[in-house]
Amino acid sequence: MSAVSSATPQGSSDHPTPSSLHSKSPGVSTYIPPWTEPYIIGVAGFSGSGKTSIAQKVISELNQPWTREQAFNNNFDFDEPGSIDLDLVVETIKSLKQGKKTEIPVYSFTHHNRSDKTITIYGANVIIMEGIYALYDKRLLDLMDIKIFVDTDLDVCLARRLTRDILYRGRDLAGALKQWEVFVKPNAVSSVTPTMHNADIVIPRGLENTTAIELMIQHIQKRLALKSTLHLRRLKALGLGPNFDLQSIQNLKILPYNNHTAGIYSILFNAQTDRTDFIFYFDRIANLLIEVAIEQLTAYEEIDVKCCKGYSYKGLKQTEDIVAVSIIRSGDCFMNSIKKTFPSIPIGKLLIQSDSLTGEPQLHTESLPKAKTGDRFFLFDAQIISGAAAIMAIQVLIDHTVKQENIVLICSLSTEIGIRRIFNVFPQVTVVVGQISKMEVAELGWGWSRPLRTWRMTLVPKHHSRATWSRRAKK
Description:
By secondary structure, this protein is an alpha/beta fold.
């Protein structure tokens, strides 16, 4: 009569211990974003047991506003473990576990083969791995935070499978029954049933067992809340070190304070300034900040410029390409100025906002243009308060193989504690700022980014020793 048959889920302590912040050298800390510690859920069960329905239920309960759904209704049930390239599965999960940008092949059920399309997964807080043999391989079990087995009577599974195959996959009744009797049912008994012993939670009757599903979701939500709290605590700790002299940081470039800049900021800070004047004078400050950022570029080559009447001019040509990345929405206020300075510059976007409930910074979306190794990235944000969004944005660029020394963060206003946090983690990044405020920690509001990005991945058969995955994301 028990709603849930369970063992103690891996890492079920109320005090999670994975490190998000550790020292890599004296005076330098390492920030590890939440997507490098994703919560991995494995869902296994017989063909037609209701794995997909339960995975969708988990997705709908975990996701918050701003989370977007990108569903691929690819759900293929294979019959025996050899039909999965488990080596590729393990390699992919490890890559996601490390927070890397990962390409997942898409399987075509029309041609029964991998298609040319791939799905890019990056920045997932929660990964749901769904498949008949999701709990079969020990290497996968070691990577999972919680393991679920959906236990449904085989007669019910047969009825669901026949309905699905005949209505949605164009198969005839005789062929579907033959496949069930010859392949599916024997392998379910011999290979799938034993994996039930690897599960932390066994859910009888699938989606009908609402009590079991609610208890499971409550447990997952509790674990994610603890991880969120720990992440916030570590972010705050970045700025609690000893005060430092701003003048001693060579990579910090502060806009010179003179009558010109003081006059512009006086207009910008004035609550009575109308919208047109505010935009005009902010563009002037933005132009000055971009000029300071350009001065940090050092890769030039000498060229001879042919002038009129046969004269020549010995000049310089910039050899580094520049990519602009805006932390939207506030970073977009620099776009007018950067486009006037570099009309054809490629522009990327990062949406980082604070969770309305926890205050945790979260990456909602990333769209970065293709760039070459060695390109310089100008990262724009209007203001830096806690520094959390800027730290996360820099980490996203680093995850996309951009070196610290090639990143220039440009902002109009910043707090000293925000600058301190950034340089504690990324000492080689260059920061160009208009003005710095000495706000104390107690004055800062810690509302900082993206709701949980949840990915559901369905194991499907391999073709010529290749495996394919399909993904469902709730956004």
